[in-house]
Amino acid sequence: MLRRSSLLDWLYPPACVACRVLLPVNEKNGQRPFCPACRELFTPITKERSIATFTYEGLIRELILDMKFNSKKQIAQALGLLWAERLQGYPVENISDYALVPVPMHRNKKRRRGFNQAEVMSLPLAARLNIPIANVLSRTRDTTPQSEVHFSRRAENVRGAFCISPRQEPRGRNYILTDDIFTTGASLNECTRVLKNAGAASVICMTLTISVKTT
Predict the structure, then answer these.
(1) pLDDT number for residue 35
(2) Tens digit of each residue's pLDDT (9 = 90 or more) over 7-44
């Protein structure tokens, strides 16, 4: 007898998240949500142990924009699986001493979108690294999206926008901040400042993509 998940795969065959081409029915589809052709379109960062895994361009940029502006949680889940799969090594030694901290989203924005993409994408990453997720940070202001703010004012836009969550004690602990895009680093820098001021021993950053300026 087919298991329920297998039966659903036969009734509703899984499709590539990017191009919607049907994927073969097998046990690994849940961990590989993109077809081979689309997977070739993602541009990996060549520098080892970089803050990011991919450059923010082409197909992955289109997917992130679709995820954010059309509230597609399925894309966030798929990108999280891709991130975990393509992660090269561990970002630090003694990785078991760390916890992942997704950059928080204000409750109003999370209500509108339905999810925080940083949290969703961090779940497969936490499983890959075998470390917990710690929602140690909260967002205090519903700031203007950084994409709508000039580069020179992004740090000011998020200054004071984060705080330590209630009943959390970062003192002496190690954290890895996670987010979908690194552009100016303003949000990551502000989160790092808050954690360090609260006594965190070590804070490093990891993003799925990095925006690279071309001249």
Answers:
(1) 87
(2) 444 445 678 888 888 887 664 545 678 888 888 888 77
Distance CA 14, CA 22 (A): 6
Characterize the bridge pairing of strands 162-164 and 137-139: antiparallel
Query: Do the beta carbons of residue 187 and residue 158 sit within 8 Å?
Result: yes
Which H/E stretch holds residue 207? strand 202-210
* Token pair recorded at residue 45: 């960062």
DSSP structure class, residue 90: -
Q: Taking all residues of the chain, what is their mean pLDDT, rounded to a whole number?
A: 86
What are 99's strand-pairing partners? 175
The residue count of the chain comes to 215
What global pTM score does this model have?
0.83
Q: How far apart are CA 6 and CA 10, in angstroms?
A: 6
Pairing of β 202-210 and β 174-182: parallel
Q: In this structure, what DSSP letter does residue 12 have?
A: S
Q: How far apart are CA 194 and CA 48, in angstroms?
A: 28
Matching residue, tokens 């990785």: 95
What is the pLDDT at residue 26? 62
pLDDT in tens, 99-112: 999 999 999 999 99
3-state secondary structure of 210: strand
